Structures are given as C-alpha cells and as structure tokens.
C-alpha cells in the first residue's frame, strides 16, 4: 500500500544555514547535530586521488568516435554502471560557458536576502521551492544546506509562482540549461541501453514524456563539519541524476562503496552522473542505484546543481523482460511510477529505504 502523504514541517529563519553562518558562532544548533553513528569521519574518508578513481566516460567517443572507440567506451560505461553506479562525463557537449552561467545565477539567488528567497517557499508535501526538503517532524535532524528546487518538464509540473524574478536572467538561463541537460540524458540512456544489449530507444519509448526537475544546493562553511551532514545519505528515485559541481574543487559528494564513504573529486567542466532507483528496477538489479551523501567544509562553501530525469508519472514500470532469467530472477514488482514518486517525496532521506516500495512485499514500515 502507498504511504499516507505527510506535509513538510515548515523550516524558518532560525534553521536557515546561511543565516546561522552570518552569526559567526562556533556553536551548532542541536537540530543539526547528528547522532555519533551518522557523523562523517572526515579524516578517515577515502580520497580518490590516493586510491582509485570514479570512472570517467568521454562522451565524444560515444557520440563521434570511431567504432572501436565507441565500443570501448560502451564497455567502460557498462562497468561503471555495474560496479559503481556513478561516473563522470567529460566532453558531454554542453557549452562550458552555459555551465558557468547557471552557476552564476544560482549563486546570485542564494546570496539574496532571506526575505527575498522566502518569497518562493517550499510547498508542503512537495519538493519545489526554497527551503529544506524531506523534513516531516520537529525532531528530525536537518541538513547543513539550503535548497531551491523547481519542476521543469512536463510543463504542467511547473509552478511559475516559484520561478524567481531575480536574478533577472535566472529563468532564461535555467530554460536553456535544462534543454541541454535533457538532450544529454536521452543520449546517455541510449548508450546505457546498448551496454545492456537492448534496443537503443527502449528507455525513451518506455518513459513517455519524461519528468525533469532541478534542485540547487548551497552548502555554507560549517564551523563543525564533523558534527553535521550537508545532505543525508540516500539513493535517487530518478532514472538518471546529473550533478554539476560548482567551481572551487571543494570536496563534498561522497558515495558508499564496499561499506566505505568515498570522496568524489570534482573535475572542472565534467558532470557527475548516477543511476537512480528506476534504472535499478528496470535492469532487475544489474545496474544499482548507490547511496550517497554530502559533507561540509569548515572554511569553503559549495554549490551543486542537480537534475533529475525520470519516466512519466502515468507509466507502469517493472524489470525489463530480457534482463530476467534463471540466473537473475525477477527482484521487483510492477508499479505505477507516479505512486513511487509520491512515496519518495513523502518519506525522509534514509539510505535506499524508499526502494523497498518496489520489492515483493505486502506492506512497508514507514
């Protein structure tokens, strides 16, 4: 059964991390302090520059390379999806100047007075607007992060009252940016399909008018990064997630691999891609969504711009038949994607718990 919708608890002035930062206090409010078992062990986190590298896919070799280059890159893509669930894409075809422009307007928005930003409040029960998402009780711990999220596609998902008039070029820049990212998502899904030995258009044909949303995350410096999390551990409910890490090369994103939190090193101009729960279900677990989180820095701030790309809400999903066999029996039931999306946004971020919705169980613990 689907969960009963829960309204987001209103987060006000006192919980806005940028406003807390302005006070320049070394004391962290209790509501942000994590239980000892959840706190990031920053000194023990693996640094990928010393050990291993998250896979890097050269999109130009997929799209314009020779047959051998394309085959090699498709194989690398398959390995990335099977073993990591994350990869970075270089030469992705999106103008680097456009990436700079979207970062610029996002930062300008977050730097506005709080009274201006609160003209676009996050609507209870949704993840659109300015504030903190996935907060459902007064006792729930908060992330050291300010968020601004908007629905993009299809157009009926948009709440134009939440589209800011300042900065003046915010909406125009986001419109151009979102179209370019949408093209990239469609192309990446073609090559993911090829890597699985499927018809290259299977995902586009299956998804209908794909849902697309953007969330901008701003992480101010934190006086005690060892006590807080920038973003709680979770997997994404999307098919694909496209992450643009802002300039500054500040570490923040961590992924859970072999039960260890691994830093993802920003590469200038690259985009970080991760597999969402939807692709895990469709591939019957062959490509898995991966738990990830964000940590904070004592002296540096960090911006990230995240695009979520998923099937239409009226689509019924389940494992693709070609990927179910005796060696890999069906792991997930068929379900309506809109119901799953509702389940996802009405539950707090808690690892991969939301994926339980898709498994063969008669009820769920909420």
UniProtKB/TrEMBL annotation:
Residues 210-311 form the Fe2OG dioxygenase domain. Pfam families: 2OG-FeII_Oxy, DIOX_N. InterPro entries: DIOX_N, IPNS-like_FE2OG_OXY, IPNS-like_sf, Oxoglu/Fe-dep_dioxygenase_dom, Plant_2OG-oxidoreductases. Transmembrane segments: none annotated. One of its GO terms (molecular function) is 2-oxoglutarate-dependent dioxygenase activity. SUPFAM superfamilies: Clavaminate synthase-like. Keywords: Iron, Metal-binding, Oxidoreductase. GO terms for biological process: coumarin biosynthetic process; response to molecule of fungal origin. The keyword Iron applies. Belongs to the iron/ascorbate-dependent oxidoreductase family. This is Fe2OG dioxygenase domain-containing protein.
């Amino acid at each position: 059964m689907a969960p009963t919708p829960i309204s987001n608890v209103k987060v006000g002035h006192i919980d806005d991390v940028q406003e807390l930062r302005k006070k320049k206090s070394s004391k962290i409010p209790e509501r942000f302090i994590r239980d000892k078992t959840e706190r990031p062990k920053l000194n023990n986190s693996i640094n990928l520059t010393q050990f291993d590298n998250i896979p890097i896919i050269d999109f130009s070799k997929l799209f314009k390379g020779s047959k051998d280059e394309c085959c090699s890159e498709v194989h690398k893509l398959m390995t990335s999806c099977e073993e990591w669930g994350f990869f970075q894409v270089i030469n992705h075809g999106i103008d680097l100047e456009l990436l700079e422009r979207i970062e610029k307007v996002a930062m300008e928005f977050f730097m506005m007075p709080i009274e201006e930003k609160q003209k676009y409040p996050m609507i209870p029960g949704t993840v659109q607007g300015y504030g903190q998402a996935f907060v459902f009780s007064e006792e729930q711990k908060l992330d050291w992060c300010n968020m601004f999220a908007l629905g993009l596609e299809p157009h009926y998902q948009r709440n134009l009252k939440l589209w800011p008039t300042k900065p003046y070029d915010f909406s125009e820049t986001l419109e151009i940016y979102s179209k370019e990212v949408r093209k990239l998502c469609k192309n990446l899904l073609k090559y993911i399909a090829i890597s699985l030995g499927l018809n290259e258009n299977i995902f586009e044909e299956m998804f209908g008018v794909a849902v697309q949303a953007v969330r901008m995350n701003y992480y101010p410096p934190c006086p005690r990064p060892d006590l807080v999390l920038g973003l709680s551990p979770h997997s994404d409910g999307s098919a694909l997630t496209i992450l643009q890490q802002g300039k500054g090369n500040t570490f923040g994103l961590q992924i859970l691999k072999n039960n260890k939190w691994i830093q993802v090193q920003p590469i200038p101009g690259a985009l970080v891609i991760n597999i969402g729960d939807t692709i895990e279900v469709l591939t019957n677990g062959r490509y898995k969504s991966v738990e990830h989180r964000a940590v904070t820095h004592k002296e540096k701030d960090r911006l990230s711009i995240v695009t979520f790309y998923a099937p239409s809400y009226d689509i019924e999903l389940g494992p693709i038949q070609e990927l179910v066999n005796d060696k890999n029996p069906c792991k997930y039931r068929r379900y309506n994607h809109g119901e799953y999306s509702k389940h996802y946004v009405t539950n707090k971020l808690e690892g991969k718990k939301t994926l339980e919705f898709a498994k063969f169980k008669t009820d769920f613990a909420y």
